Amino acid sequence: MAAATSGREKLVIIGSGPAGWSAAIYAARAQLSPLVYEGAITEKNRLSGTLPLGQLALTSEVENFAGFPHGNLGAFLDSALPAERRQMMAPHAGEGVTGPELMELMRQQALNFGTRIVTDDITRVDFSKRPFTLFPSEGGSVTAECVIVATGASANWLGLESEEHYKNRGVSACAVCDGALPRFRKRELVVVGGGDSAVEEATYLTKFASRVHLVHRRDSLRASKIMATRAHEDPKITIHFNTELAEVLGDDAKGVTGVRLVGTDDPARETRLEVAGVFLAIGHTPNTAFLAGQLQLTPKQYIVWTKHFRTATSVDGVFAAGDVADDYYRQAISAAGTGCMAALDAERWLAAQGVH
Ligand code: NAP
Q: Does 149 lie in the same domain as 81?
């Protein structure tokens, strides 16, 4: 989808997760007429988890975004609020909110205030002089007085040759995207990882699988208590502690047919499981490669916020928001919060430059 660009933009926002849309909502309401590059819809982006709308578009129900309680919101409001406050609200028949719904709502909210959207990737930037120049994958360039980078992070892979070989043929880093495929239904599956994502993916996959094996390299889960308890209590989940995935087994006709696991405490302890799918949930890497070193990054490649409690980066006029600059909180709501902060920082910075 192409948007009318003005040749020299006031503010370009790169990225379309909660940080990008929150920045766009605030910037559009401040009449900065922001232009959002939301990412391209390509197979490459699908495989790397960088499609438009970010990581939330790859999740199921969002239980922890304030304002969207789980379950029937109408019934919740009926029971939680005194009648005099409840009667001032329109009836709500919804059932909580899913990640994709939340992202579509944010995108629409940004559009409603006049945000322009281009469905393409920015593949290269030149931040060495102002106005900044951004290079979309479809060709050409766009110049901008001010830029907010909100490109998020994407899923990590183990780096095994067999994992690469069977990607898209039983190996995936997104249970919500791929879990319902016929090849996984009523079959045994493996999830690798011990954090909240691994538990979330394992729990989600129990809807389709006959059994889910959660394979974790340490002797306890890193996941939050409520999530870990869910995994321990789920009769369809078997947890393999002190174990790592050594090899994905399969053949070219069927794709994945099994895994070879080895003990991290005892490499001689080897197990083979017959499974139809392997899902990786081992953390994320920030999407900063396209910056090619033009902003200061941490050793883990996250953008450095250079001013305390501000979204400024090492280049004056470039701001960062969300997971691309945050390897600590990494929550949808904290990303949305820093998106708002980046828009306010951008607005004030542009005003100081005399751009209104
Ligand atoms: P994470 O908390 O960093 O966990 C990554 C897991 O992968 C860890 O258990 C880690 O093992 C394991 N791991 C990393 N590299 C590995 C490797 N090379 N081989 C084997 N295992 C490896 O990441 P996450 O689970 O994606 O969660 C990220 C953030 O999002 C967290 O703050 C989390 O709370 C949040 N989150 C929240 C929800 C929710 O509330 N519903 C859902 C998903 C995520 P070690 O434990 O040994 O380091």
A: yes
